[in-house]
Amino acid sequence: MTAAKGPGAGRRAAHGGADGRGGEPGPGDRSADGREPPAVSPLLEVRDLAVNFGPVQALLGVGLTVREGEVVALAGENGAGKTTLMRCIGGDMAPHAGEIKLGGMPLQPDPGALARQGVSVLWQDLALCDNLDIAANLMLGRERRTHLMSEVKLHTGARRLLADLGISLPATTRDIRSLSGGQRQLVAVGRAISHRPRLLLLDEPTTALGVTMSKLVEDLISGVRQQGTSVLLACHDIDMMFRLADRIVVLRHGRVVAEVRPTEVHPDDVIALLSGQDADSSARSQLTRLHGLTGRLVSADPSSSLSLILSALGAALGSERLCIHLVSGSELACAASLGLADPLLSAWSRLPQGPAGGPAGIAAAAGEPVIADDVRSDGRWAPFATLARSARVASSWSVPVLGPQGLAGVITVFRSMRGKPKRDDLDLVTLYAGYAASAIERDGLLAEVTARNRVLETIREMLETLAGPLPVSQSLGVALQALCRGLQADQAALVVRRAGQEPVVRAAAGRADLRPASADDDLVAAAAGVLSRARKNDVAVHAPGSRGRIVTVPFAAPGGGAALVVCWRTTAQPADAGALAEDAARSLQLALEREEASVAHQEALTLRRSQELQRGFLSRLSHELRTPLTAIRGYASSLLQPDVTWDNESQHRFLRRIAAESARLGRLVDDLLDFSAIESGILRLQRDWCDLALVLEAAIACLPPDVSPPVKVSCAPDLPVIWADHDRLEQVFVNLLANAVGHNPAGTNVQVSAVARAEYVEVTVADDGRGLGPDTARARFEPARRWRGPTAGAGLGLSIARGIVTAHGGRIELVAQPRGTCFRICLPIEAEAGLAAQPDPDGQALLATASPGPAVGTGPAVGTVAATAARQAQLTVGEGDD
Amino acid sequence: MTEAATRALVVEDDPNIVDLIRSNLAVRGFDTVVSADGLRALRLLETESPDIVLLDLMLPEIDGFELCRQIRERSSVAIIVVSARGGERDKVSALNVGADDYMTKPFSIEELLARINATLRRTRPAGLPAESAPAVINVADLEIDLARQLVTRAGVPVHLTPTEFALLRELATNRGKLLSHAHLLRRVWGHGYETETEYVRVYIRRLRAKLESGSTPLIVTQPRAGYRILAD
């Protein structure tokens, strides 16, 4: 709660000062909770003191105590008896009755004895010796002890004393008469406190002084008190009392009328007491009311603070009808009201500023109170004259509420009697207007803080999303959605532009929805515009679009630039939208960089894997080429051995094997050529209309003749001819069938079936053999596992089959099944109606991605089945065809 | 070499290579036993006591290097690895696990026979030159009995393979002399091996592992030149 403006400010400041002093450490200080210190016998105790000046009772039954280290102020109007009391205590006058004790001992009414008892007095008339210089006056009391001091010693001592006290005076040799009143007072104060007295009596120490000197004297008193001296201070300056005193004793007509603590009362109360009023006057109750209001406001819900102020003001004024309007755009909106009749309230719920808004509107426009002492004859009430009459409003005051940013609202008080308000009442309204202004300010701040918190929460959520486990590609949209919610924006999009390319919407979201990367055209245009211009990165660009406001933050992104675009179509743009968008852009930038790094990492991994596969492939290929070569070279060199003569049988065997291995080598080379043609995309097909049944028949004929049971073929009778390369397709089926026959134990059933589909023919090659179980996975790692088949080996068979099928515009896939192995080949009936372009209906990985040798199925595998299929496909190629 | 038929164990799963080797060894008076797998090979090693093993590295069920190591663990029989893998790394690995020689497929029959003979000569020396050095050489705490092919270190017998022994003998009988790689290769492995410097390195390392202790080196390396055993 900030300090109220208006008349209350000064009073509160006085309060603050008293509180602050109360907190200082000091021997006689009250403890922090304000309770009395432990009872010790007071330093000064005055009881039932009475002094008569003839028939005038100067003092009567006065009692007073001053404790160790305490500062007690005597307040009273002139003639109240302050000085008389001081003179009695200071030993300058003997009371007619009563007793004065110092430290429990009766006080000797003799100045010399008093000084010995540690009492020092500063008289109102100073009691300086005009014929002496400064030093002599300062040291007056001491000469008695030291007998005659030397001049030098005297002045040195005096200078040291002044320095210690922080008093700056002209040379100590100056005659006291040559000093100003203030300087003389300082000398007197200096003398009074130079003895480090136990009790210092000060009678009007600042009466003759200006502001600066008064301050100096006040500081001296504070200093003395810090050192443990008790002070009894008689003065007229109530504010000074409140600053210095622990207690204030109020004298009136020679009697003690009150004893108060500055922390518990208001200076006005003391003034009232001085003039004989009851302290608990109306002003005091107003003060209490305000005090209570302050307390309630601190803990009140922001929305109810204005009502609280209003009802407190109502109570303070004794008025039951009030309302407060707050500035809302160009209008005044009624924020709270008390006791207003409905018709008036509804008419006044929104008022324009200016004459059309009646007295409240005029007060708002002018920034000054509008007092209508007779509503009926007042032109300013003209717009609401009828309403005022029916609501029995006879007079009104409208007081503007002025906050730090100017006009915040207007408080209007409605009265049922004609007449001007009392000055005090108007002051009260102004005072409460000050409270209202600070409450409004506080509410504004709170709302701002709340909004800010919401936004911070958004940014945090964004950051968390972007740094979370979700892949960046997915988290971008979620993050943008959070941003929309936080900024109350309608749409946000991340637009990325790679160098030399068109901008692309990378992610977009509305407050409630995630959009597939699409954003409204004006957002994209705004982003493209900002990205294409020379611009400062990371700085928001505001643009009023045709359909709302748009903020664009460009930033550097991997491979080019990117921009965050946020738009507000239906909602208001928060004040710091730009800064927040910049924050958000930074987190998006980090996310994009993270993504780039992870992509690079993935690429490196893929490359390494592909290199490993290639190395493995080459090693196996080398092995496969060396094996027939070894036989050929070995047999040939054997036959050429000069020292051996081979028998006929051996010679024939050698030659047969040379021939067989040469043929195998030839096929291997053919395969390699096919493979490299497929790899480099130059596989030529000799297309013609083919009968698939004939192709299958030819393929089966290539298998060893003793396959048992024979391969079963079932072709649908309506199988159409297809536009394909007969020989190449035959190669595919030979490979698949040879795998099925050669890999499985004898007796495995192998079945080929072909059916026509809408635009393609589907052929399956299935067996009920060992399938591709875990044992094949192990076998795959044994490169020596070889068998002689129609293809030459080297793991090229399936790759070639896949290449050929793909070249036909078809696809080949491994069908997951519990037992055995099943390949499905789909071939388009007409080449151009190719299946290659169609999405994979099963979501299964095709053996359709080109990669060297055994690397098959690197395409995106969707789902577990597909992943398994891909793995198995890889196994098949890695192991099966070898 | 022909009095008692030399027995060769061929570990190989390619029937063509088996037939090829067996035919050629048979006409030269070798007994040949064949195994297509590692376990059988280890069994035959026990039962047939071959003089030489021709070992293919690519076998089903067992890694060829591992099989080589196991054979070497059980016997000091001469081992020639025959492999389609021609890499330097494979060759060094094979020597490290105990092979005496390494041949890359494809090979000619002449080469195979030459290597078999060289390895057999090295590992089964036909006798000592008559005028040669003393029958027993002492180096530090080693005692090398050239006649009986026994080595003891501080009285404890040390087991060396024939090739290891041949290398040690060459170094010990030429004590103090620097012996070049080529010299060692020619003398220990035979003609045609002069460029196979890995052989020397691998076998020197093995000798050191078996014979040297702590700080005092037995065999001193002269970088890029060769090796020697220091004179007293």
First-residue to last-residue Cα separation of chain B: 38 Å
Model regions low in confidence, pLDDT < 50 over at least 5 residues of chain B: none
Sheet-strand content of chain B, in percent, reads: 15-25%
Q: Helical percent range of chain B?
A: 40-55%
Uncertain regions of chain A: pLDDT < 50 for 5+ in a row?
1-38, 773-792, 833-882
Number of helical stretches of at least 4 residues of chain B: 8
Strand order of the largest sheet of chain B: 2-1-3-4-5
CATH architecture of the domain at 8-131 and 175-275 in chain A: 3-Layer(aba) Sandwich
Overall domain count of chain B: 2
By CATH, the superfamily of the domain at 8-131 and 175-275 in chain A comes out as P-loop containing nucleotide triphosphate hydrolases
CATH topology of the largest domain in chain B: Rossmann fold
**What is the percent of helical residues of chain A?**
40-55%
Characterize the structure shown.
The complex is a heterodimer of chains A (882) and B (232). Chain A is an alpha+beta fold and 882 residues long. Among the domains of chain A are: 8-131 and 175-275, Rossmann fold; 286-446, Beta-Lactamase (2-Layer Sandwich); 677-880, 2-Layer Sandwich (Heat Shock Protein 90), CATH 3.30.565. Helices cover 44% and strands 20% of the residues of chain A. Chain A contains 25 helices and 29 strands. The radius of gyration of chain A is 53 Å and the shape is elongated. Chain B is an alpha/beta fold. Chain B folds into two domains: 7-123, Response regulator (Rossmann fold); 136-229, Winged helix-like DNA-binding domain superfamily/Winged helix DNA-binding domain (Arc Repressor Mutant, subunit A, Orthogonal Bundle), CATH 1.10.10. Helices cover 41% and strands 22% of the residues of chain B. Chain B has helices at residues 15-27, 38-48, 64-74, 88-96, 109-123, 162-173, 181-189, 197-211; strands at residues 7-11, 31-35, 52-56, 78-83, 101-104, 136-139, 142-145, 150-153, 156-158, 179-180, 219-222, 226-229. In chain B, a hairpin with a 2-residue loop joins strand 8 (150-153) and strand 9. In chain B, helix 6 (162-173) crosses helix 7 and helix 6 (162-173) crosses helix 8 (197-211). The model of chain B has no long low-confidence stretch (mean pLDDT 84). The chains are: A alpha+beta (882), B alpha/beta (232). The A-B interface holds A 619, 622-623, 626-627, 629-635, 637-638, 641, 644, 646, 650, 653-654, 657, 661, 782-786 and B 13-14, 16-17, 19-21, 23-24, 27-28, 56, 58-61, 84-86, 105-110, 112.
